[in-house]
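Teaching note: in complex prediction, the entire set of molecules is handled at once rather than each chain in isolation. The prompt given to students was simply: 'Predict the structure of this complex.' The entities are:
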Amino acid sequence: EAGVTQFPSHSVIEKGQTVTLRCDPISGHDNLYWYRRVMGKEIKFLLHFVKESKQDESGMPNNRFLAERTGGTYSTLKVQPAELEDSGVYFCASSQDSGPGNTIYFGEGSWLTVV
Amino acid sequence: GQNIDQPTEMTATEGAIVQINCTYQTSGFNGLFWYQQHAGEAPTFLSYNVLDGLEEKGRFSSFLSRSKGYSYLLLKELQMKDSASYLCAPRGYQKVTFGTGTKLQVIP
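The expected output is the structure of the full assembly:
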């Protein structure tokens, strides 16, 4: 069974450009999460989808970030326009259910560098 | 809000036992994860405690006390490959929050 997959694995863009990160959760997982780790800091929650609905987007830093999950399958996270402080690793994770007992599995991450 | 506290760094000898402690405060609690993360890689699931007590899984065990807001990860028979960051991650109503992690260095 394939795990959580993310694309691209690495991206280097200039300040002001746009980047779109994609996440394919484990098949059958309704819950999809985006997290971010900025250099030297802890992994921080960005948002949580249940199927195609945003359940919690309290961690989204500002309106330059837009996450979508049309059809409740894969998700995209767009950063537009990118700023230097957006550099970091963006992790996607998924779980079958959001209740107790359900493990959350992480993807390998998308490493974003804004120059 | 959520507050997670675990040691920043630990060093232990190959073959020894190490215990990594974590205290947490959460709004709502639905269990606690421990993840292992090697530098440059994704967090890898180690354990998930929902009820109080000790859960053993091979060389790794995890303990939870909900009333005390306390958990620990116990690693036995340490191997060099266990050198990594260990992330304590309590689960609130739905989302998981991560601490800064404990960087464990295993030395010969």
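Point out the following to students. The mean pLDDT of chain B is 92. Chain B touches chain A at residues 30-31, 33, 35, 41-45, 48, 50, 87, 91, 94-101 (CB under 8 Å).
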